[in-house]
Amino acid sequence: MGQANVSRRILLLVPDLGCHGAAKQAKLLASALPREQFTVQVGVAGNDGIFSKSLRDSGVAVHVLGDDPLWLRTLSRLKLLAREFAPHLIQAWSNAIRWAALARLGGFRRPSWKMIAVDPPT
């Protein structure tokens, strides 16, 4: 019998997709992961940016959650994305780490996803 094709779902969470370390690292990682083993999506806890088009062109879904002054909206959007995408792992960079931590702590049930926090140099 052949082995089942198991795709691990990864959500890369960045503060924005501007030209800086976190966005560059997320773009490189999303582009390098083999599609037959990983399903990758990018969440943007702020504004869209320069890397958005190239990510979308390479087949990576980009979700702009926005950096809403009413922070509960951004958190709600992230929690909805995490619930719908059901990632196995969320890797968050810089100040997007707080959004991932809040999404992980909030609610009555503990989410099944793991979190990796990265604070790259700018």
Structure report:
By secondary structure, the chain is of the alpha/beta class. It has one domain: Rossmann fold. 35% of the residues lie in helices and 23% in strands. The chain contains four helices and five strands, in the order βαβαβαβαβ. Strands 3-2-1-4-5 form a five-stranded parallel sheet, with helices on both faces. Helix 3 (71-85) crosses helix 4 (96-105). The longest helix is centred in the middle third of the chain and has 15 residues, at 71-85.
Summary tags:
122 residues; alpha/beta; Rossmann fold; five-stranded parallel β-sheet; 4 helices; 5 strands; 35% helix; globular
Give the helix/strand layout.
Blueprint: E1 8-14, H1 21-32, E2 38-44, H2 52-57, E3 61-64, H3 71-85, E4 89-93, H4 96-105, E5 114-118
Parallel strand pairs: 1-2, 1-4, 2-3, 4-5
Strand content: 15-25%
CATH top level class name:
Alpha Beta
**What does the overall shape look like?**
globular
Low-confidence stretches: none
Number of strands: 5
Order of H and E elements = EHEHEHEHE
The CATH architecture: 3-Layer(aba) Sandwich
Number of domains: 1
How many helices? The count is 4
Give the rounded overall mean pLDDT.
87
Global structural class: alpha/beta
Alpha carbon gap, first and last residue: 48 Å
- Tell me the strand order in the biggest sheet: 3-2-1-4-5
